[in-house]
User: Which sequence fits this backbone?
């Protein structure tokens, strides 16, 4: 005959044993398999890929386990975007340029789109409802500072005080606000503007050839994904033609261009990675405010200046964030 207390203990032991048996795995892993997030990124720049992947790695994402990247070339990719998304829908799309962002919005209204656009006003262009609350499936970085083109001309004038013939390489499909600013600045200084538009990297040689017939004293590049993809070739042709050049792309002097003034691209790519991280952790892209590039840099290439027979003002060199010797 057992006492009440002992019987209660025995029953509790039996219940615990039954619960443990029910909880024990039956030929299955003890933990659920971690889902791999898929991120589609459109770029031809290895540094862009490395920056984004590096930031996400630092935030705990493990490539091949918790995250997988689908890298796509950027040139004319907006024509293939729908096919890419249908073949393997990503959890997040990361891409640059108004043409590609607009095509992504046409292809999907549900997949979060993280955009980088240096040419457009995001609200008036219809990409977002407001800067603070985009509202749809798009957010990211928009520069929306056409006056940056005027600053580039100012830097050229410090190097070439008698500048009165300026060449402009741009994409006339998307660069009108910046081009209008160039024309306004040049009207005020009685500088003639000679423009050559490019819609693809294959257009660059022809555009530069047309530009040279106008005998410009220097060239300024406006922002465009096409121009970004063709920086190395533009820098090469400018150097061959002994033309001082300036670009908003901070990577341009590394290819042999004379100067760059504009947003720091590695910093922008890290900003984009921050959006990807937040979205993959559950944030709604439509609730993430649109940001501007956080850092602007002036980069000068003294080696190129020497080849061109130019002496850069010491004040300009001292203001530079980076000097390539």
Assistant:
């Amino acid at each position: 005959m057992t006492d009440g207390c002992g019987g209660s203990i025995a029953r509790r032991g039996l219940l615990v044993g039954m619960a443990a048996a029910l909880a024990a795995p039956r030929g299955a892993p003890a933990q659920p398999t971690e889902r791999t997030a898929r991120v589609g990124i459109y770029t031809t720049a290895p540094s862009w890929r490395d920056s984004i992947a590096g930031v996400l790695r630092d935030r705990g994402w493990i490539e091949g386990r918790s995250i997988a990247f689908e890298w796509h070339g950027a040139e004319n990719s907006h024509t293939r975007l729908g096919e890419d998304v249908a073949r393997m829908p990503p959890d997040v799309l990361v891409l640059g340029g108004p043409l590609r962002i607009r095509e992504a919005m046409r292809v999907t209204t549900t997949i979060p789109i993280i955009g980088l656009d240096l040419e457009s006003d995001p609200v008036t262009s219809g990409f977002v409802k407001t800067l603070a609350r985009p509202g749809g499936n798009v957010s990211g970085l928009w520069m929306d500072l056409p006056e940056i083109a005027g600053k580039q001309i100012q830097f050229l004038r410090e190097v070439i005080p008698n500048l009165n013939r300026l060449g402009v390489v741009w994409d006339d499909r998307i660069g009108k606000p910046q081009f209008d600013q160039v024309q306004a600045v040049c009207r005020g200084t009685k500088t003639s503007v000679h423009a050559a538009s490019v819609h693809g990297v294959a257009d660059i040689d022809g555009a530069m050839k047309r530009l040279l017939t106008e005998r410009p004293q220097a060239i300024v590049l406006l922002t465009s994904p096409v121009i970004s993809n063709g920086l190395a070739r533009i820098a090469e042709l400018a150097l061959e033609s002994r033309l001082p050049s300036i670009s908003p792309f901070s990577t341009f002097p590394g290819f042999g261009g004379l100067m760059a003034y504009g947003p720091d691209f590695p910093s922008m790519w890290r900003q984009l990675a921050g959006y990807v991280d937040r979205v993959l952790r559950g944030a709604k892209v439509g609730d993430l405010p649109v940001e501007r590039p956080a850092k602007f840099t002036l980069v000068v290439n003294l080696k190129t200046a020497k080849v061109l027979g130019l002496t850069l003002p010491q004040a300009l060199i001292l203001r530079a964030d980076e000097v390539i010797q």
